[in-house]
Amino acid sequence: MKTVSPFLELEDAPRVEVSFDGRTLSLPTGANLAASMLAAGIDVFRNTPVSGAPRAPFCMMGACFECLVDIDGITRQACMVEVTEGMLITPPHSAEVRHEPS
Amino acid sequence: MSRRDLVIIGAGPAGMAAAAQAADLGLSVTVLDEQPHAGGQIYRDVDRIAPIRGGILGPDFTHGTTLTAAMRHDAIVHLTGAVVWAIEDQFRISYTRGGRGAQIEADRILLATGALERPMPLPGWTLPGVMTAGAGQILLKQSGILARNAVLVGSGPLLYLIAAQMVRAGTPPVAMVETQSRGDVMRAAPHMGGALRGWRYLAKGLKMLAEITRARVPRYTDATGIAIEGDGKAEAVRFTSKGRSHRIACDTVFLHHGVVPNTQAARSLEVSHRWDAAQHCFVPLADEWGQTDKDGLFIAGDGAGIGGAKAAECAGKLAALEVAHQAGRLPLAERDRFAAAPRAKLESELAARPFLDAAYPPCAEALLPDDKTLICRCEEVTAGDIRGYAKLGCIGPNQTKAFGRAGMGPCQGRYCGLSVTVLLADATGQTADETGYYRIRPPIKPVTLGELAAMDDNTLDAAE
Amino acid sequence: MDTDYIIVGGGIVGLSVAWGLLRRGLTVTVLDGDDGSFRASRGNFGLVWVQSKGMKQPRYAEWSQHSAAIWAAFADELGNNTGQTVPLEQKGGYDLHFSEETLEATVAQYEVLKGKLGGNYPYEVLGHNALRKEEPNIGPTVVGAILHHQDGHANPLKLLTALAADVRRLGGRVLTGKTVTEVTKPDAFRVTCADGTAVTSGKVVLSAGLGATQLGPSMGFKAPIRPQRGQVLITEKLPKLINRPSLIARQVDEGGIQIGATNEEVGLDDRVTQPGLSGLAAEAIAAYPALARAQLVRSWGALRVLSPDGLPIYQQSAEMPGAYLVTCHSGITLAAAHARVLPDWLEGTSAAPNLEVFSEDRFAVS
């Protein structure tokens, strides 16, 4: 599935598969995650915990925290992360909190 | 825990230049930077990108490779991906790298944390698809990603730079909605003396404007009543220019009305700041070497007041010279001799600033937004809320923070702090200095509780 | 005279008292500090708490119980008056234990107190498994908890905001950015501020937190209070993870997990420290292991306002009759009592509570 993105990619790089919110995305390995997700047509990264309003990357330099996503269970700024194969990405805290095994 | 002569936070032009200078003078230097590659925002990932997109980005970008080259020095440890979250007395620095907390000690610290985009709260600015112009440039620079249908909104040289780069890359912006007026340029005229000394910048500016005009990018000046519209994402920009209303459809909006010093780290160390009326922001107090009112704590580059990349490079060198002098590695006369060239260059770099500051003032309606506009993106607090808290007796931003949470979210006030100060000052009649700023405390970047707990002495003892 | 009462200090304690006086038709002027003042009102942990208080002085336990019992009605009234809800949850709170020994020792103390209170001390002991039914995210090293049914927690910042709004709505005059430098009583009280502002009144309430150490002695009070630093952490907003509050952690109504607090005797230093934050994080993770993955977004240090025995001080000045010292560590828990009961004591009505044990007489002259 290829979504039409409002962004155009000038570069081509080897791609790996990651998952975002259950969708499989093919992103350039080692690329900036937030940029690659935008280019892949992801226009909403999360909904705010205050009002539920949709948000997406704003500053791309680690300052605004709008691009927060959960990566393998920890909330991270997508604009500060590089793409690696098999990343499990979801909007923050969209999954139920897992109970720790005792 | 290792102890270094100098720890530099930030690997942009100021940090890189300071590191090389200090290392050359025999100091042990560690550079901590959040990004995976040296360069800062201006020279982001420059070693990889210069050969690929140097043509689009221009020689002002590729110049960064000279700084990254000088950073490869035996006496410099550059820790990439290091997120600093606390700096404490006698300079113990806590940071996270690769999911693990760590600490380093420093005799002296140079904060080279650069600039942030000035917050530009306009109706609709939180919609997906609205980004800072800096973000647009980072997308292009680092990732080679261009917005197909973008409107650029605001004022200032960076707006023209990104427009020109988009033109060169073959995807010009749909339109430029500029908030500065002819009156602003007229008011800036008395500063032209300084600008003539900084003529190189003005010539560059004119060249960029010519590129934008040649590409037939529509330019609307004197824009007011700006609002970004859309259902769940940006779909159009609405505004009035010269008495006529416009609505321009787009997918992406890049906002910009200047950059301001990123003072989070300096604030967390309780460095004194003052309001800079020309640049409409707080700047840390520092002497001609960048030393603050905290002994051994230096600031260089845009974090000390906006001057641009070349000025930052000079300021970084000057700070390193004074650090070396204080460390007993450089006699006074030598320090002053080495300082002459960078100081002269710094002055010439700063010459165009008064003209630029006057010609491209911040967008008035984003400084004092209407009541309904969100100013704190994280906690979704409006300008009207802040005015209401002023009526309830809040005379400073730490009180409005307690009353309405503005500044409490994950961005820790980076994109609402100046708005809150200006709104409160306007409501109470105090000056910005009297109004003050948020008390910034660690963590200056979020850290997981697990990373934090792993540094607990009792936990460490138990593990041993 | 400008006003019936001058309240020196516009934090939760001062505003609660001001609100109570205003509701009785008295006129009140509140003198409040500036943006950078030490303000326990915006740094506290937000508990409305009964257990463990007054172990040596049952009257304090009763006073806290009474305030907790009337807190909901107080919060409702503020909410109705201002249209701003003051979130409050009173479905019990825990004292979590990591060892059987400390749990048993605490229960033994609670039994003694319960006897002194005529049996009104509703608590139960939950073993690990019972606790786990209540708190599915509890950690394996928590052996059990004391669940006290009179405990709860509130949103202290929304309380502060609502009080600020309602005091004004009731006609209270609040002067901000004031530092009181002198209180005299030539005839009426005259309170002077650093900026030259002077206000006269029939009575004065000194509720200036740590500021009372400077002003108190000049007004005839001992005011033997000291700062004690508490560092507090708060995480990003999370889905429901903790049901009931404890002294270790609580989930606030906005979703963040608040973690507290250190007890440090460091004078007027309200900074946070890495060792302080790391220690609190480790303890919170021991209690709720899922917190290891949570992001810390803010931390702060605040200064507790402590008397030598930790109890409140309610004292009328012998030198300046009509001047009252009102100070306590638990301004949130006691807010309802200060708003609804303390005015009777200040006004000397027949309904005045007996606050003898909280007078300064209990502090020996040294």
From TrEMBL, chain A:
Coiled coil: none annotated. GO terms for molecular function: iron-sulfur cluster binding; oxidoreductase activity. Keywords: Oxidoreductase. InterPro entries: 2Fe-2S-bd_N (IPR042204), 2Fe-2S_ferredoxin-like_sf (IPR036010). The keyword Protein biosynthesis does not apply. Pfam families: Fer2_4 (PF13510). It comes from the Bacteria. This is 2Fe-2S iron-sulfur cluster protein. It comes from Litoreibacter meonggei.
From TrEMBL, chain B:
Residues 1-22 form the signal peptide. Residues 5-316 form the FAD/NAD(P)-binding domain. Keywords: Oxidoreductase, Signal. Pfam families: Pyr_redox_2 (PF07992), SO_alpha_A3 (PF17806). InterPro entries: BFD-like_2Fe2S-bd_dom_sf (IPR041854), FAD/NAD-bd_sf (IPR036188), FAD/NAD-binding_dom (IPR023753), Metab_Enz_Cyan_OpOx_G3PDH (IPR051691), Opine_Oxase_asu/HCN_bsu (IPR017224), SoxA_A3 (IPR041117). SUPFAM superfamilies: FAD/NAD(P)-binding domain. CDD domains: GlpA-like_Fer2_BFD-like. The keyword Lyase does not apply. Residues 372-454 form the SoxA A3 domain. GO terms for molecular function: oxidoreductase activity. This is Thioredoxin reductase. It comes from Litoreibacter meonggei. The lineage of its organism: Bacteria, Pseudomonadati, Pseudomonadota, Alphaproteobacteria, Rhodobacterales.
From TrEMBL, chain C:
One of its GO terms (molecular function) is oxidoreductase activity. Residues 4-342 form the FAD dependent oxidoreductase domain. It comes from the Bacteria. The chain crosses the membrane at residues 6-22. Keywords: Membrane, Oxidoreductase, Transmembrane, Transmembrane helix. InterPro entries: FAD-dep_OxRdtase (IPR006076), FAD/NAD-bd_sf (IPR036188). GO terms for cellular component: cytoplasm. This is Glycine/D-amino acid oxidase-like deaminating enzyme.
